[in-house]
Specification:
By secondary structure, the protein is mostly helical. The protein contains 24 helices and no strands. It has two domains: 250 residues, no CATH class; 237 residues, no CATH class. Helix 4 crosses helix 10.
Length: 501
Amino acid sequence: MFAQKRTQLMIISDLFKHQWQKTFRAPGYYKNLAVTILMAFVALYFVGALMFFGAMFPVFVADVAPQFTAMEAFSGSLLYMLLFSLAMRYFMQSLGTINLQPYQILPIKRSVIVNYILLKPLLTPANYLTLAFVIPFVVRYVSREPDALCRVQFVAVIVFLIWFNVLVASYLKRRFSATLWGTLGVLLCFGAIAGLEYFKIFSLFSISKNVFGFLLSNPFGLVLVLLLPLGAYYLNKAFFRKNYYAESFEKQSKKQNYISHFSFMDKFGKTGELMQVHIKTFLRNKRMKATLWTMPFILLYGLLFYNNSSYGLGMKMFAGIFVTGFPMLILGQWAIGLNSTYFDAIMSKKITVRDYILSFYYMMFVLCIVSFILTTPYFFYGKEIMIVQTVAFLYNIGVNISILLFFSTFNDKRIELNTGGAMNYQGVSMKNFLVMIPIMIVPMLMIGIANAFNAQNVALWILAILGILGIISTKPLLAFCEKQFLRRKYILCEGFRKKDE
């Protein structure tokens, strides 16, 4: 029995080794090394910020909520953090996957492969960013409490909760994300919890404070919390017993086929047919789908800036461009790259460059209009916000769409449609970050310069006029993008043929 378990562990370690080798041997890994290093520095920044906040948390609680101790405030907030993390993981966490075919013909038990798939996300470093906050908090505060658990035991409880969160998110995503109604059901559950808390029907804070206060300060709490990830683990195992093979998902795939039918676009000719292809591609790409489900949260981004008087007009313009153009920015960043897997086939068809460019232009134009309409409730914040939103919208459709179309021709990295959604930088290069300068930074700089001369209204007029001129000059701007596409066409074809993996 012991030898059998040892053999299974060795096979799992070999699977991790294969994945490690696959990552570092991929040609695209070294091409994207600059982006990887940049993201590492960003991660280090967040780790440092969390460590500082964790060390200073008792001081913040004493200033903001003196009626609670630091432990009570931490325990009361833990349920909020778990639910928020669960929601983010459901929409953004990539599922642990493996190419089954090479292993199915080897003498490897199904349970070993399932264990690997379930354990893989638990080893992702990003899951443990919370510890950057918890450990300084434990060192500074928890260890000084006479009735608290020791440092290691306290941290172990948090780790078990992280495991539970990751495994439950994986189960929910596998169980419900395959269908639109399943995802809407999960959204309604989270929305109902938020609504009950908002209307003060019951307080999650007091429930969390009592439950987690007991679990964190009681020796039996460690055992009880350990049962949570174990239960989530066996829940996933039960799911895999019924859905191990790809054929198990055929019925689900048939149910969601209606999402991919947009036949009404056929009447718009070749441009409409291409738009239909782009929408199907967008919905079939896991990263794009994950981004799509985060849209409701992104549209609320303006609440962070519009409701805060400490932010100037420049930051409000930044928020305005973002909330009225987020879908456009996402599609524009990956516009041509999303067709990379069948780009040669598209180029061999009887399709003009004008139709191909127009298909992306109309899609981004419509997405901007939809985003603008959905964010009109921000007008209730006053005249200034109404003007900012309108100017940002005009700048997006008049200037930013053309900029995105032009710069999309420089992104010649292949994007696989079946790759994971979160922590996935396939196809990302420094060009994706540089394009944000004219899109987001230039308007802020213009307003900043105008502010130095006390002429912010002049900057708003300039941005609005630029947007209107861009709308009027759509044909010459698109012609310029067409020429750029023709110059880069064969470079794109060559780049898209190279597989990173």
